[in-house]
Amino acid sequence: MENENLDQNNIKSFQLVIASKNIHKIREIKTILNEITPNIDLLSLIDFPKYIPPEETGESFADNANAKAIHAAKALNRWVISDDSGLVIPALNGEPGVFSARYAGEKATDSENRKKLLSKLVDLSDKDLYAYFECCMAVASPERLKKSVCAKCEGRIETQERGGGGFGYDPLFVKHDYNQTFAQLKEAVKNKISHRRKALDKIAITIESIQVTK
Fold first, then answer.
1. Cα–Cα distance between 177 and 14 in angstroms, integer?
2. 83, 84, 110, 170: which one is catalytic?
3. DSSP 96
4. For residue 84, how many other CB atoms are within 10 A of its CB?
5. Could you read off the pLDDT of 80-132 as tens digits, one per residue?
6. CA dihedral over 99, 102, 103, 105, signed as positive or negative
7. Which contiguous run of DSSP H or E holds residue 30?
């Protein structure tokens, strides 16, 4: 994202740690950030194997994102960007929600989570298949939480899986105005329209301002 108020010549490269060990999420965030905020040396928690993240006990995606960013930034003494995201189906009282990654159990696979969700969709009518992905992101320094944002990508949930790409619930989600699931879309297309892209677009200005002041 361009910011006309910032002198791009003053933007210097700096390190930013992605507070995740999920290789799919790391890849997605790196791809998008490299496009909209260049000159960042992006690391992840995979680069810090001794670090133990906090448990996700928040009642919202924002709670979890903020907690992860603050904890990692202090422990690693570095600038950190965190992500907490998931699928929300209002007709299922918001499930899987903040439990998206562990919907079928603490160590459940993506496939197991989708299987549990599909079992819950059997009794829903077509109008109840409205769903959205939500992504909350936070940027923190070792001293404080710098910025927190959230974004949604609205669509519908499918009653059978389609596509072999993506991860998580991507084979079951179709964004409004599209006829392919996230798992069927080309990666470049998904990265321009997803909830994660929207959240990164919102927080990019904060990252750029950090680069200028460092």
1. 38
2. 84
3. B
4. 27
5. 999 999 999 999 999 999 999 999 999 999 999 999 999 999 989 999 999 99
6. negative
7. helix 23-36
pLDDT on residue 211: 78
Task: Compute the distance between CA of residue 112 and CA of residue 108 in angstroms, rounded to an integer.
Answer: 6
Could you give the C-alpha distances from 48 to 72, 75, 76, 78, 185, in angstroms and in order?
10, 11, 8, 12, 32
- Point out which residues pair with 121 in neighbouring strands: none
Query: Residue 179: what residue type?
Result: N
Beta-sheet pairing, 145-157 with 130-140: antiparallel
CA–CA separation, 29 vs 93, rounded Å?
Answer: 29
Start-to-end CA distance of the chain, whole Å, equals 19
Q: pTM for the full model?
A: 0.91
63 belongs to the catalytic site: no
Q: Which tokens is 110 given?
A: 């993506």
145-157 and 173-175 as β-strands: parallel, antiparallel, unpaired? Answer: antiparallel
Q: Which CATH architecture has domain 8-213?
A: Alpha-Beta Complex (3.90)
What are the residue boundaries of the structural domains of the chain, listed by start? Answer: 8-213
Q: At what angle do helices 23-36 and 195-213 cross, to 10 degrees?
A: 60
The rounded distance, in Å, linking the Cα atoms of 65 and 139 is: 9
110: CB partners within 8 A, 6+ apart: 167, 168, 169
Give the list of residues 6+ apart from residue 92 with CB closer than 8 angstroms, or none.
Answer: 120, 124
